[in-house]
Write a structure and sequence with these properties.
Elements (H helix, E strand, L loop, with lengths): L6 E5 L4 H5 L2 H10 L4 E6 L4 H5 L6 E4 L8 H14 L4 E4 L4 H9 L4 E5 L10 E3 L10 H6 L23 H13 L8 E6 L11 H13 L4 E6 L7 H13 L7 E3 L5 H9 L3 E5 L2 H6 L6 E5 L4 H4 L9 E5 L19 H4 L3 H18 L1
Parallel strand pairs: 1-2, 1-4, 2-3, 4-5, 5-6, 7-8, 7-10, 8-9, 10-11, 11-12
Helix pairs in contact: 7-10, 8-9, 8-14
Amino acid sequence: MAGEPRNILLVRLRLIGDVVFTTPAIRALRRRFQEARLAYLVEPEAEPVVRRNPHLDQVIVASSPRARGRLIADLKLAGALGAAKFDLAIDFHGGPRSSWLTLSSRAPARIGYDIPGRRWMYTQRVSRARELRPRHSVVNQWDLLTPLGIGPPDPRTDPTEMPEDPRAVAAVERRLEALGVDHRSDVLIVVHVSAGNPFRRWPAASFVELIASLASAGSRRRIVLTSGPSEAGAAARIGAEARERLGKGAAHAVVEGPDLDLSELRALVGRAALFIGGDSGPLHVAGTAEIPIVGLYGPTLPARSAPWRSPGLVSESVEVLGLPCRPCDQRRCTPGDFRCLGWLDARTVHAAAERALTRDAERR
């Protein structure tokens, strides 16, 4: 590369968690190239993660892969990227669309993974292991910074981040008030009860048992249930069963959270005492807040996708150890019974939650 880059394009189109895991690299690039202009290319679903990132100068939103007219939109986007005169482009994604858009930027320096069929689109290639391994996703993506002379990542100095949106904070506080939840005096526990990937869904019955146990263990606790668009009714079904189990005296402790966009979810977890959820986007959004987290890991490993942040913050990872089929590619369950999550006992998760709350109280 001739001279210091002045106009840098970063590409990570999706998914929510993967975009969250690029935010340490964004900060490192800003620290390394303080005078450079940093632009980030992302699809709409994950755009809120980087919308307010303080180290970026521009967020460019590509059309959704399911949008009508995407081909025409991509051609227009490619032309705009080429006209922007980027001198460095880094493809954190590595997919066919992202590599083509990286090439379309016409940046003289283009860094990407050494992937068969796409390696020719980059001027500098970084190897990427084809097998699943216990190496954090932040580190995997950070590999693309090594050609720039940037040293290894440290979660203490470069944690994941997603700044709160003040408008989302105000909206969430109004909604909590409407639900009868006072985030200042209640012990607010957010439980995310769904996952877009069926391989990462803990059984609904286990969530019911966990929620009832959490609510019974403290009179000031309010359990707010959230679910994603892929399972819009999950929170209502699980909440109804948990309230029935608790009975009239304690049923008020469990409420279904309102429909939230990603910025509002970040605002909600920022007001919580604890977050519990599987390895999906909401867990990684929660990891950008300084709250205790209990993560449920089935086909994936905590070593790869646990919250990347200061070791002083409380994170508990719950998993079934000793299964030879873990981790897996999440295309087929070899045993056929999804035992990696199905065998996670609700009492074990509850114990991890109580431990996390205690550890956080001691930390504070």
